[in-house]
Amino acid sequence: MSSRSVRILGLLGLVAVVAVLLWYFSRPKPVAVTVAEVTAGDVLATVANTRAGTVDACNRARLAPPMGGQIANLPFKEGNTVRKGDILLELWNQDQRAQVSQAEREAVAARSRTREACVNSAVAAKNAARIQALRKENLVSEGDTERAVGQADAGTAVCDAARDQEKVSQARIDVARAQLERTILRAPFDGIVAEINGEVGEFVTPSPVGIPTPPTVDLVDGSCLYISAPIDEVDAPAVRAGQKASISLDAFPNQRFPGVVRRVAPYVLDTEKQARTVEVEAEIENPEKYNLLPGYSADVEVILENRENVLRIPSQAILDGKRVLVLDPATGLLAARDIGKGVANWEYTEIRSGLKAGELVVTSVDREGVADGAAAVRE
After folding, report:
1. CB count in 10 Å sphere of residue 184
2. Which one, of 199, 211, 204, lies nearest residue 183 by Cα?
3. Residue 121 CA to chain centroid, in angstroms?
4. Annotation: CATH topology of 60-92+184-220
5. pLDDT by residue (tens digit) across 53-71?
6. Could you name the CATH architecture of 43-57+224-378?
7. What whole-number distance in Å separates Cα of residue 212 and Cα of residue 101?
Protein backbone atom coordinates (compact mmCIF):
# COMPACT_ATOMS: atom_id res chain seq x y z
CA MET A 1 0.00 0.00 0.00
CA SER A 2 1.36 3.37 -1.04
CA SER A 3 2.03 6.15 1.42
CA ARG A 4 -0.71 8.15 -0.25
CA SER A 5 -3.27 5.46 0.47
CA VAL A 6 -2.15 5.32 4.07
CA ARG A 7 -2.60 9.06 4.41
CA ILE A 8 -6.08 8.85 2.88
CA LEU A 9 -7.09 6.06 5.25
CA GLY A 10 -5.72 7.98 8.19
CA LEU A 11 -7.62 11.08 7.13
CA LEU A 12 -10.84 9.09 6.78
CA GLY A 13 -10.33 7.55 10.23
CA LEU A 14 -9.74 10.98 11.69
CA VAL A 15 -12.94 12.25 10.09
CA ALA A 16 -14.85 9.28 11.49
CA VAL A 17 -13.48 9.87 14.99
CA VAL A 18 -14.38 13.57 14.77
CA ALA A 19 -17.89 12.68 13.57
CA VAL A 20 -18.37 10.24 16.43
CA LEU A 21 -17.14 12.81 18.93
CA LEU A 22 -19.41 15.47 17.45
CA TRP A 23 -22.38 13.10 17.65
CA TYR A 24 -21.54 12.09 21.20
CA PHE A 25 -21.23 15.61 22.53
CA SER A 26 -24.17 17.02 20.55
CA ARG A 27 -26.64 14.18 21.18
CA PRO A 28 -29.67 14.96 23.41
CA LYS A 29 -29.02 14.16 27.05
CA PRO A 30 -31.26 11.46 28.51
CA VAL A 31 -34.19 12.95 30.43
CA ALA A 32 -34.44 12.00 34.10
CA VAL A 33 -37.74 10.27 34.86
CA THR A 34 -39.44 8.74 37.85
CA VAL A 35 -40.83 5.28 37.30
CA ALA A 36 -43.03 2.75 39.05
CA GLU A 37 -42.86 -1.00 38.76
CA VAL A 38 -45.89 -2.93 37.59
CA THR A 39 -46.84 -4.99 40.64
CA ALA A 40 -49.76 -7.00 42.01
CA GLY A 41 -52.00 -5.48 44.65
CA ASP A 42 -55.52 -4.37 45.52
CA VAL A 43 -57.42 -1.71 43.57
CA LEU A 44 -60.55 -0.10 44.95
CA ALA A 45 -63.25 1.52 42.85
CA THR A 46 -64.36 4.53 44.86
CA VAL A 47 -66.32 7.77 44.73
CA ALA A 48 -65.39 10.72 46.90
CA ASN A 49 -67.07 13.86 48.17
CA THR A 50 -66.90 16.93 45.95
CA ARG A 51 -66.41 19.37 48.84
CA ALA A 52 -65.10 18.95 52.35
CA GLY A 53 -67.43 17.07 54.66
CA THR A 54 -67.91 17.67 58.37
CA VAL A 55 -67.84 15.58 61.52
CA ASP A 56 -71.26 15.98 63.15
CA ALA A 57 -72.77 14.69 66.37
CA CYS A 58 -75.72 12.30 66.22
CA ASN A 59 -77.32 14.40 68.97
CA ARG A 60 -76.77 18.14 68.95
CA ALA A 61 -79.17 20.69 70.42
CA ARG A 62 -78.88 24.43 70.00
CA LEU A 63 -80.98 25.45 72.97
CA ALA A 64 -82.65 28.66 74.10
CA PRO A 65 -85.33 29.33 76.73
CA PRO A 66 -88.86 29.60 75.31
CA MET A 67 -89.37 32.97 76.98
CA GLY A 68 -87.26 36.07 77.52
CA GLY A 69 -85.81 37.20 80.79
CA GLN A 70 -82.71 37.87 82.84
CA ILE A 71 -80.19 35.08 83.32
CA ALA A 72 -80.02 34.25 87.03
CA ASN A 73 -78.03 31.01 87.01
CA LEU A 74 -75.54 29.26 84.71
CA PRO A 75 -74.47 26.15 86.62
CA PHE A 76 -72.10 24.83 83.92
CA LYS A 77 -69.24 26.22 81.84
CA GLU A 78 -68.22 25.51 78.26
CA GLY A 79 -66.62 22.08 78.05
CA ASN A 80 -68.45 20.68 81.08
CA THR A 81 -70.15 17.29 80.85
CA VAL A 82 -73.85 17.23 81.78
CA ARG A 83 -76.46 14.56 82.31
CA LYS A 84 -79.96 14.45 80.89
CA GLY A 85 -82.24 16.67 82.97
CA ASP A 86 -79.47 18.87 84.42
CA ILE A 87 -80.26 22.59 84.58
CA LEU A 88 -78.20 24.43 81.98
CA LEU A 89 -79.66 27.89 82.47
CA GLU A 90 -82.23 29.52 84.75
CA LEU A 91 -83.90 32.89 84.26
CA TRP A 92 -85.01 35.14 87.11
CA ASN A 93 -88.27 33.51 88.18
CA GLN A 94 -89.13 34.63 91.71
CA ASP A 95 -92.58 35.74 90.53
CA GLN A 96 -93.31 32.32 89.01
CA ARG A 97 -92.06 30.59 92.14
CA ALA A 98 -94.39 32.78 94.22
CA GLN A 99 -97.29 31.83 91.96
CA VAL A 100 -96.46 28.14 92.42
CA SER A 101 -96.35 28.62 96.20
CA GLN A 102 -99.66 30.49 96.15
CA ALA A 103 -101.31 27.79 94.03
CA GLU A 104 -100.02 25.06 96.35
CA ARG A 105 -101.40 26.87 99.43
CA GLU A 106 -104.74 27.36 97.69
CA ALA A 107 -104.79 23.65 96.95
CA VAL A 108 -104.20 22.87 100.63
CA ALA A 109 -107.11 25.13 101.57
CA ALA A 110 -109.28 23.49 98.88
CA ARG A 111 -108.51 20.04 100.30
CA SER A 112 -109.50 21.25 103.77
CA ARG A 113 -112.79 22.65 102.43
CA THR A 114 -113.42 19.38 100.64
CA ARG A 115 -112.90 17.37 103.83
CA GLU A 116 -115.26 19.71 105.74
CA ALA A 117 -117.96 19.60 103.07
CA CYS A 118 -117.78 15.86 102.65
CA VAL A 119 -117.87 15.24 106.43
CA ASN A 120 -120.97 17.45 106.69
CA SER A 121 -122.45 15.58 103.74
CA ALA A 122 -121.86 12.24 105.44
CA VAL A 123 -123.46 13.47 108.65
CA ALA A 124 -126.50 14.79 106.73
CA ALA A 125 -126.82 11.49 104.88
CA LYS A 126 -126.81 9.53 108.15
CA ASN A 127 -129.36 11.88 109.68
CA ALA A 128 -131.62 11.55 106.61
CA ALA A 129 -131.41 7.78 106.85
CA ARG A 130 -132.33 7.92 110.54
CA ILE A 131 -135.31 10.28 109.89
CA GLN A 132 -136.55 8.04 107.09
CA ALA A 133 -136.48 5.06 109.45
CA LEU A 134 -138.44 6.97 112.05
CA ARG A 135 -140.91 8.11 109.37
CA LYS A 136 -141.74 4.48 108.62
CA GLU A 137 -142.84 4.16 112.22
CA ASN A 138 -144.74 7.46 112.05
CA LEU A 139 -142.50 8.96 114.71
CA VAL A 140 -141.65 12.07 112.63
CA SER A 141 -143.61 14.16 110.22
CA GLU A 142 -143.31 13.97 106.46
CA GLY A 143 -142.01 17.56 106.39
CA ASP A 144 -139.14 16.71 108.72
CA THR A 145 -138.29 13.74 106.50
CA GLU A 146 -138.24 15.79 103.31
CA ARG A 147 -136.16 18.48 105.01
CA ALA A 148 -133.59 15.90 106.18
CA VAL A 149 -133.39 14.28 102.73
CA GLY A 150 -132.97 17.70 101.09
CA GLN A 151 -130.16 18.59 103.48
CA ALA A 152 -128.42 15.30 102.67
CA ASP A 153 -128.71 15.90 98.90
CA ALA A 154 -127.42 19.45 99.32
CA GLY A 155 -124.49 18.18 101.37
CA THR A 156 -123.62 15.67 98.64
CA ALA A 157 -123.68 18.44 96.03
CA VAL A 158 -121.44 20.67 98.17
CA CYS A 159 -119.01 17.78 98.67
CA ASP A 160 -118.88 17.12 94.89
CA ALA A 161 -118.37 20.82 94.20
CA ALA A 162 -115.54 20.96 96.73
CA ARG A 163 -113.86 17.99 95.08
CA ASP A 164 -114.15 19.67 91.67
CA GLN A 165 -112.66 22.85 93.14
CA GLU A 166 -109.81 20.78 94.52
CA LYS A 167 -109.10 19.53 90.98
CA VAL A 168 -109.16 23.12 89.72
CA SER A 169 -106.63 24.05 92.41
CA GLN A 170 -104.37 21.19 91.32
CA ALA A 171 -104.66 22.37 87.71
CA ARG A 172 -103.59 25.84 88.79
CA ILE A 173 -100.51 24.29 90.40
CA ASP A 174 -99.73 22.50 87.12
CA VAL A 175 -100.08 25.76 85.17
CA ALA A 176 -97.88 27.67 87.63
CA ARG A 177 -95.24 24.93 87.56
CA ALA A 178 -95.32 24.86 83.75
CA GLN A 179 -94.76 28.63 83.68
CA LEU A 180 -91.87 28.20 86.11
CA GLU A 181 -90.39 25.42 83.97
CA ARG A 182 -90.35 27.77 80.96
CA THR A 183 -87.71 29.81 82.78
CA ILE A 184 -85.44 26.76 83.20
CA LEU A 185 -83.37 25.22 80.39
CA ARG A 186 -82.59 21.52 80.94
CA ALA A 187 -80.30 19.13 79.08
CA PRO A 188 -82.39 16.90 76.76
CA PHE A 189 -79.61 14.26 76.70
CA ASP A 190 -76.18 13.47 78.12
CA GLY A 191 -73.53 15.61 76.45
CA ILE A 192 -70.92 18.35 76.53
CA VAL A 193 -71.63 22.07 76.71
CA ALA A 194 -69.97 23.29 73.52
CA GLU A 195 -70.93 26.96 73.68
CA ILE A 196 -72.74 29.43 75.94
CA ASN A 197 -73.95 32.78 74.61
CA GLY A 198 -74.78 34.84 77.66
CA GLU A 199 -73.68 35.72 81.17
CA VAL A 200 -75.45 35.91 84.53
CA GLY A 201 -77.36 39.20 84.66
CA GLU A 202 -77.78 39.53 80.88
CA PHE A 203 -81.15 39.44 79.21
CA VAL A 204 -82.11 36.87 76.59
CA THR A 205 -85.02 36.94 74.19
CA PRO A 206 -86.50 34.07 72.14
CA SER A 207 -85.82 34.04 68.39
CA PRO A 208 -88.51 35.71 66.26
CA VAL A 209 -90.31 33.33 63.93
CA GLY A 210 -88.22 32.71 60.83
CA ILE A 211 -85.18 34.62 62.12
CA PRO A 212 -82.45 32.30 63.47
CA THR A 213 -80.31 33.63 66.31
CA PRO A 214 -77.29 32.11 68.09
CA PRO A 215 -78.32 29.49 70.65
CA THR A 216 -77.98 30.37 74.30
CA VAL A 217 -76.50 26.93 74.98
CA ASP A 218 -75.06 24.55 72.38
CA LEU A 219 -75.14 20.97 73.68
CA VAL A 220 -73.30 18.17 71.85
CA ASP A 221 -73.33 14.43 72.44
CA GLY A 222 -69.74 13.47 71.65
CA SER A 223 -70.33 9.74 72.17
CA CYS A 224 -71.94 9.36 68.74
CA LEU A 225 -70.34 11.02 65.71
CA TYR A 226 -70.75 10.68 61.95
CA ILE A 227 -69.40 12.36 58.81
CA SER A 228 -71.68 14.27 56.49
CA ALA A 229 -70.26 14.87 53.01
CA PRO A 230 -71.65 15.90 49.60
CA ILE A 231 -71.30 13.40 46.71
CA ASP A 232 -71.76 14.52 43.11
CA GLU A 233 -75.19 13.63 41.75
CA VAL A 234 -73.51 11.63 38.96
CA ASP A 235 -71.83 9.31 41.48
CA ALA A 236 -74.68 9.15 43.99
CA PRO A 237 -76.72 6.32 42.35
CA ALA A 238 -73.86 3.89 43.02
CA VAL A 239 -73.72 4.67 46.75
CA ARG A 240 -75.76 2.52 49.14
CA ALA A 241 -76.14 2.37 52.91
CA GLY A 242 -73.91 -0.36 54.33
CA GLN A 243 -71.04 0.11 51.86
CA LYS A 244 -67.53 0.36 53.26
CA ALA A 245 -65.83 3.74 53.28
CA SER A 246 -62.40 5.21 53.87
CA ILE A 247 -62.41 8.44 55.86
CA SER A 248 -59.64 11.02 56.20
CA LEU A 249 -59.52 14.03 58.52
CA ASP A 250 -57.40 17.16 58.19
CA ALA A 251 -56.77 16.95 61.93
CA PHE A 252 -55.10 13.53 61.45
CA PRO A 253 -52.87 13.83 58.35
CA ASN A 254 -51.51 10.66 56.74
CA GLN A 255 -54.12 8.58 58.56
CA ARG A 256 -57.26 6.94 57.21
CA PHE A 257 -60.17 5.59 59.22
CA PRO A 258 -62.39 2.64 58.26
CA GLY A 259 -66.07 3.48 58.11
CA VAL A 260 -69.43 2.51 56.69
CA VAL A 261 -72.15 4.46 54.87
CA ARG A 262 -75.17 4.83 57.16
CA ARG A 263 -77.46 7.01 55.05
CA VAL A 264 -77.84 8.46 51.56
CA ALA A 265 -80.13 11.49 51.41
CA PRO A 266 -83.25 10.92 49.27
CA TYR A 267 -82.94 14.32 47.60
CA VAL A 268 -80.47 16.47 45.65
CA LEU A 269 -79.04 19.69 47.04
CA ASP A 270 -78.97 22.47 44.45
CA THR A 271 -77.60 25.30 46.55
CA GLU A 272 -74.81 25.50 43.98
CA LYS A 273 -76.47 25.44 40.59
CA GLN A 274 -73.38 24.17 38.80
CA ALA A 275 -72.61 21.37 41.28
CA ARG A 276 -75.66 19.51 42.50
CA THR A 277 -74.87 17.00 45.20
CA VAL A 278 -76.40 14.33 47.41
CA GLU A 279 -75.59 14.30 51.11
CA VAL A 280 -74.01 11.05 52.31
CA GLU A 281 -73.51 10.14 55.97
CA ALA A 282 -70.81 7.72 57.10
CA GLU A 283 -69.86 6.39 60.52
CA ILE A 284 -66.29 5.73 61.66
CA GLU A 285 -65.85 2.22 62.99
CA ASN A 286 -64.92 2.13 66.69
CA PRO A 287 -64.88 5.95 67.09
CA GLU A 288 -64.03 5.62 70.79
CA LYS A 289 -60.45 4.79 69.73
CA TYR A 290 -59.94 8.28 68.35
CA ASN A 291 -60.20 11.72 69.90
CA LEU A 292 -62.66 13.09 67.36
CA LEU A 293 -64.45 16.40 67.77
CA PRO A 294 -67.61 17.67 66.06
CA GLY A 295 -66.77 20.25 63.45
CA TYR A 296 -63.62 18.59 62.07
CA SER A 297 -63.40 18.71 58.28
CA ALA A 298 -63.43 15.28 56.68
CA ASP A 299 -63.33 13.51 53.32
CA VAL A 300 -65.18 10.29 52.52
CA GLU A 301 -64.29 7.73 49.87
CA VAL A 302 -67.05 5.19 49.37
CA ILE A 303 -65.71 1.80 48.25
CA LEU A 304 -67.84 0.52 45.36
CA GLU A 305 -65.67 -2.47 44.34
CA ASN A 306 -62.48 -4.12 45.61
CA ARG A 307 -60.22 -5.94 43.12
CA GLU A 308 -57.68 -8.04 45.03
CA ASN A 309 -54.18 -9.11 43.89
CA VAL A 310 -54.36 -7.71 40.36
CA LEU A 311 -51.68 -6.00 38.26
CA ARG A 312 -51.74 -2.28 38.95
CA ILE A 313 -49.87 0.93 38.21
CA PRO A 314 -50.14 4.47 39.60
CA SER A 315 -53.01 6.26 37.89
CA GLN A 316 -50.79 9.28 37.25
CA ALA A 317 -48.76 7.20 34.77
CA ILE A 318 -51.63 6.93 32.27
CA LEU A 319 -51.67 9.22 29.21
CA ASP A 320 -54.85 10.04 27.29
CA GLY A 321 -56.69 7.45 29.35
CA LYS A 322 -55.20 4.47 27.48
CA ARG A 323 -51.39 4.71 27.05
CA VAL A 324 -48.27 4.55 29.19
CA LEU A 325 -44.57 5.14 28.59
CA VAL A 326 -42.43 2.12 29.41
CA LEU A 327 -38.71 2.50 30.20
CA ASP A 328 -36.47 -0.24 28.79
CA PRO A 329 -33.53 -0.51 31.21
CA ALA A 330 -31.41 -2.25 28.56
CA THR A 331 -31.68 0.48 25.89
CA GLY A 332 -32.57 3.46 28.06
CA LEU A 333 -35.39 4.38 25.69
CA LEU A 334 -39.04 5.17 26.33
CA ALA A 335 -41.73 3.31 24.39
CA ALA A 336 -45.43 4.16 24.27
CA ARG A 337 -47.75 1.25 24.84
CA ASP A 338 -51.54 0.86 24.82
CA ILE A 339 -53.08 -0.78 27.88
CA GLY A 340 -56.37 -2.34 28.89
CA LYS A 341 -57.72 -0.92 32.14
CA GLY A 342 -59.99 -2.31 34.82
CA VAL A 343 -61.05 -0.80 38.12
CA ALA A 344 -59.39 2.54 38.86
CA ASN A 345 -59.18 5.26 41.47
CA TRP A 346 -57.10 8.39 41.94
CA GLU A 347 -54.16 6.31 43.25
CA TYR A 348 -54.05 3.02 41.30
CA THR A 349 -55.44 1.56 38.08
CA GLU A 350 -55.92 -2.14 37.37
CA ILE A 351 -54.07 -3.39 34.27
CA ARG A 352 -55.81 -6.12 32.28
CA SER A 353 -53.58 -6.10 29.21
CA GLY A 354 -50.52 -4.41 27.72
CA LEU A 355 -48.10 -4.70 30.64
CA LYS A 356 -46.32 -7.43 32.58
CA ALA A 357 -45.26 -7.59 36.19
CA GLY A 358 -41.85 -6.02 36.76
CA GLU A 359 -41.94 -3.56 33.84
CA LEU A 360 -41.27 0.10 34.58
CA VAL A 361 -43.79 2.79 33.67
CA VAL A 362 -43.03 6.49 33.77
CA THR A 363 -44.93 8.50 36.36
CA SER A 364 -43.33 11.90 35.63
CA VAL A 365 -45.20 12.19 32.32
CA ASP A 366 -45.46 15.99 32.47
CA ARG A 367 -41.70 16.63 32.35
CA GLU A 368 -40.21 18.27 29.30
CA GLY A 369 -38.66 15.79 26.91
CA VAL A 370 -40.64 12.79 28.13
CA ALA A 371 -42.00 11.25 24.94
CA ASP A 372 -42.13 8.06 22.90
CA GLY A 373 -38.62 7.10 21.69
CA ALA A 374 -36.81 9.54 24.00
CA ALA A 375 -33.68 8.49 25.85
CA ALA A 376 -34.27 8.44 29.59
CA VAL A 377 -32.53 7.64 32.80
CA ARG A 378 -34.21 6.51 35.99
CA GLU A 379 -33.98 8.88 38.93
Report:
1. 16
2. 204
3. 66
4. OB fold (Dihydrolipoamide Acetyltransferase, E2P) (2.40.50)
5. 898 888 888 888 888 899 9
6. Beta Barrel (2.40)
7. 36
